[in-house]
Write a structure and sequence with these properties.
It is built from 8 helices and 7 strands; from the N terminus they run βαβαβαβαβαβαααβ. The chain is α/β, with parallel strands linked by helices. The chain has 2 domains: 213 residues, Rossmann fold; 36 residues, no CATH class. It has a 7-stranded parallel sheet, with helices on both faces. α1 crosses α8, α3 packs parallel to α4 and α4 runs parallel beside α5. This is NAD(P)-binding protein.
Length: 274
Amino acid sequence: MSQISPPNLHVTVTDRVALVTGAARGIGRAIALRLAADGFHVALNDLPKMSNELEKVKTEIQLRYGDIKSCIIFADVSKQNEVREMINKTVQELGRLDVMVANAGTLWTGSFLEATEEDFDRIMNVNAKSVFFCYQEAAKQMIKQGHGGKLIAASSVNAHRPFIQSSLYAISKWGVRGMTQAAAIELAKHKINVNCYCPGVIETNMFHEGTQAMAAQTGIQVDDIRHNLVHQTTAMGRIGQPDDIAQCISFLASQGSNFVTGQSLIIDGGIHYT
């Protein structure tokens, strides 16, 4: 579970609205709670099967920050019509859209030579196509509103240098980097900033699932994989927490990042250096 900053009893409520996909748990949950602490009203998205977890996030926002509005919107973000409807519902419920955080994603581990067409399509649909739809539909709404906005998406350190057994995952996250740069160029004239974040090894369910899959494929023990990732790969010698990512998204969503666009922010405790 992410370690979120204590409730801010002096939250300055704004009229700004953020939409976070994949908000039920892990990094998405941490981002939603952090943006609420920053004064954003927050639309929470995930799949219907995550309804209980989303309700818990919504309740936590209400308990911590009573004046902050939040709503739950179910959608499969790999489908454009559902993304479009998600944006429309956000505006209907909360009045506008200022920040789009396309956080939803999935993991794939396996052999490059044994990857199938179905594997490729699934990972690209969830990790890359969904970002394209979120960027595009959110940008249309922001242009209609006329006061700019922030588009932010989940990439990965795998988009800078892939880990072993992660070829399709790396391909999808490289796509997010390229998409972010291309969108940043076209949308700057509308005062829309476009950036992505590249987490390293973060303590989430996805990380646990990934290490278990890697152990099954390589025969290396899960504890040994974790030890190698922390002590041989990461300069800071620890696994990151979801709140480490949320702190950086807080900056990208703020007015302080108005001169930052087209960037891929690495948040990995010292795995890759640029």
